[in-house]
Amino acid sequence: MRHRSAWTAAAVLAALLVVPAAPSHAAACGTGNAALNRPATASSTENAGTPASAAFDGDTGTRWSSAFSDPQWIQVDLGAAKPICKVVLTWEAAYGRSFQIQTSNDGSTWTPIYTTSTATGGTQSLDVTGTGRYVRMYGTARGTGYGYSLWEFAVHVESGDEPPPVGGGDLGPNVHVFDPSMPSSTIQSRLDQIFRQQESAQFGTGRHAVFFKPGTYSGLNAQLGFYTSVHGLGRNPDDVTINGDITVDAGWFNGNATQNFWRSAENLAVVPVNGTNRWAVSQAAPFRRMHVRGGLNLAPTGYGWASGGYIADSKIDGTVGPYSQQQWYTRDSSVGGWLNGVWNMVFSGVEGSPGNTFPDPPYTALNTTPISREKPYIYLEGGEYRVFLPAKRTNARGTSWANGPTPGTSLPLSRFYVAKPGDSAARINAALAQGLHLLLTPGIYRVDQPIAVNRPGTVVLGLGLATIIPDNGVTALKVADVDGVRLASFLVDAGPVNSPALVEIGPAGSAADHAADPTTVQDVFIRIGGAGPGKATTSMVVNSDDVIIDHTWIWRADHGEGVGWETNRADYGLVVNGDDVLATGLFVEHFNKYDVQWFGERGRTIFFQNEKAYDAPNQAAIQNGPIQGYAAYRVADSVNTHEGWGLGSYCYYNVDPTIRQHHGFQAPVKPGVRFHHLLVVSLGGHGQYNHVINDTGAPTSRTSTIPSVVVSYP
């Protein structure tokens, strides 16, 4: 037995010695869509406008839909048998409840690789294992009375060791580029098509960026719906002129513009048809680097409610008419006149601003903006796309392009990793680690690890409100404590598993001086709930010093899907730990506890808009120790120097209108802590404020929507 055991051990050792070495890297699931623009067929189509090919064209604005019966199928030919690792189905409202994902090598004999009878629609990312040339969705039970309808059907295959990311590339199917040589009717038709898809798609999945090459366009009305941005591709706004209108109105919501969110107009000139352009928006709808050769109307047709808004680096030759706008912030611009104000109109560095007369009229005006740096933007130089990086300005007044081209530097697109929906966080981080910047093309990006921005001067720029959703409770994006990072133009949507934070600027304990080259956070919007259940303890944490937060809307949803006091729980909106942080255009709303907490020294805020959480179930739910309610904006007791201008907080406790909020603002009483032009408002008498700041300021009216104000504090 001893001899046999020794022989067996030797044999085993010999066998081990001849086993081939394992590959250094396991096969990875590729980020590219192997089904993109491949031949497709279906069991039926609803009509000629919904062909099978529309589910494989990469355009989330086109779709396949079937006849209204079961069963139905749609399939794609990959061209050769491939190892399939993931299928992503983006359903329209008409979805499949029971279906299989099947593969075949001959298009005749099918093998199921995924089966469900409990699907609920939306976007389904399905990890699968199978091989086949053909892939199909075979539906046996519809989720609605309509047919099966897919915006997109993506197939991912194993790629082995993926090649390293490279810079440049096309901008994807949802970036629409127009040229002055194109017929106006062709451009208008496409603009209208996008608007029909996006007009009321408040929580939809479509994302679109519209670009106009330099030149003059006539006879256009670009109506902008949700998740749509329109840009000029010139170096300066007047390089692109539209004889027509760039319009936002509120017909989809019966003339109420308070939900006209998530859209933008940037870097072009407009000559309005009737002399006045209409831009009736609320939060998260920036108007940047625009030249309006006429007037600008900020109210919807019929002058219904509106709750905006933000203008920067723009010139309006005529008068700006806010009319029904409750509040507005305008920075580093020029206006021909300003008609009126409702509660809180704030200006910094604006030529032609109406003066500093708060509260009657309710104007707050700073002669200059202490520090500003305009947002990066794409432009054309010859036939090449480049990204321009405007220079920092101090004590700015008027537009950056008033006396010639905006100062700054530019980067070729080849220096950017041009990400597409479906790219993993690992691949994006590999690109960033290689020294590439990041351009997020329109779409939705799910990340299972934080996007890690570790290199000084990195640019992260989104197009068409590109949206990042963290999975499994991770932080969506983290920035190291480095100089000069620029984050711009994207939306972070909380996932259903609680994230401790969604965006983190600098790790805890950051202390480096970035005054010469600050990090900027511009048009970065955060949403918790609304598109579905989402949770985050804190939405944005700023640990680095000298950060400029230039226009953000951080929103715990008060309507949409996945909304409830605990369903989309989010205790804090913005937490600032860094010193010398400046916020210009700060919108933070509806958090379960403090909307803003400021712990850093020498912080400054120019314009703040807030609503307390509507859905607090009772007084006890918001009791803050001995204090009734959590302040909308709290400066920590340890802070010695802080200053704010033009800050407003509103309450609308519609679940329990008897709730009282002790104050909207809380701050230590110290000589270096100063506030100018504060207000609180009870909307329709639903809840009340006892004071404006600390124990100062009159209580709000029990019946009328009239602000209580404090002109200066202390």
Low-confidence stretches: 1-25
- Characterize the main sheet: 14 strands, parallel
CATH topology type of the domain at 29-158: Jelly Rolls
Q: In whole angstroms, how far apart are the ends?
A: 94 Å
- CATH architecture title of the domain at 29-158: Sandwich
> Can you identify the CATH superfamily of the domain at 29-158?
Galactose-binding domain-like
Radius of gyration: 27 Å
Helix-and-strand structural type: mainly beta
As an assembly, this protein is single chain
Q: What is the count of helical runs?
A: 3
Shape: globular
Q: What share of the residues does DSSP label as strand, in percent? A: 35-45%
Query: How many beta-strand elements?
Result: 52
What would you say this structure looks like, in words?
- The chain has 714 residues and is mainly beta.
- Among the domains are: 29-158, Jelly Rolls, CATH 2.60.120; 612-713, no CATH class.
- The strands form 8 sheets. Strands 9, 10, 11, 12, 13, 14, 15, 16, 17, 18, 19, 20, 21 and 22 form a 14-stranded parallel β-sheet that branches. Strands 28, 29, 30, 32, 33, 35, 37, 39, 41, 43, 47, 50 and 52 form a 13-stranded mixed β-sheet that branches. Strands 1, 2, 3, 4, 5, 6, 7 and 8 form an 8-stranded antiparallel β-sheet that branches.
- It starts with a helix and ends with a strand.
- Keywords: Signal.
